[in-house]
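Typical record is below.
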Amino acid sequence: MSLTMTKEPAEDDRNARAIARLLADMPGMHPAEHFVAEASKVAEAICKTVLRREGVTYDDQCGLHALANRLNSVPPATVCIERHLKTIAAWRNIAAHDKGEVHQRHPVVDDWSAGIVALSLSALEHWYFGDYLQRPAHRRLPQWLSDAFASTLRPTVGEGAVDSKPFESGFHNSRPILGRPVDRVKNRTAYKLLFQTQDFSGEEHAVCRPLLAWQEGLPKAVSVHGKLAEKYRQDKMIATLGCPLREQVHVRSLSGFRALLQRFTVGPESHHRRGLYHHLEGPHVGRTYFTTGGIGVAYKELGAERSQLGLPVADERETKTGAVSHFEFGEILWDKETGAKTVVQYR
């Protein structure tokens, strides 16, 4: 969809792109009701800006329908623009009240009605950027409107990353779980490792927002979601565990209990590997624990969850002499002075 807009100042171009992205999101990527509500906000912002510039008074609490009536008194406006505004207002009112049981299975506000709203919003932005703002006296937007339009911007997959392609590949593989991006890519640090993450909205009933993480050398970003993401997002856990190496998998211990496992790393060496386990069965069902450092290396050398130790049943904790991790059938002790590891098994 092409936009007719002023070339200067750059502020106008940014607001035009905000509307363009809102239109590009329609329909299907988001609930139709959400799109109609966002379109109504943009239309109200445009109306209030024009009325202020033209010196026309209005009540801050009045809705889009009343604003459209006021805008009709402004010389540059046309009857068609008023009709487009009232179309958006009408569908916004329907969306706001479409909560009854009659329309639960077949809501009134769907992709078809969102398409109608999009057409009206397109006509409105063509008039505003292509006609009204072309007038020399109206070429600069106030800051409050810039902020209003900026709030409708949504980040894209991999936006802000060193290389967006790994994020796009990871998103393609996990799209149903991830949902839509809610923030730009962030830089992270864990021990000797630099990596990047991006947050996503997740499924409707997700326990925690999922994310994609990527470090240089990985062919694609890896997702962390569900209960593992809930643990991963706890205080300082991202710095402790680092970047995920691969997607989570189902494992089973010698006791027969199943768990979810995801491998992480904070550097290139073997002792930089970490593991995050979420119990799906057994006395610790629903709980998530991690293994790190020298203890994690020893645990993996013994066979990890398939060893006689079984699954971890507590997070690693510090002791006076080093650290200890408890498992189903034993524990691993780590001595910070010598680096020696002692495995104590019990049944």
Confidence is low (pLDDT under 50) at residues 1-15. The longest helix spans residues 32-53. The two ends are 68 Å apart (CA to CA).
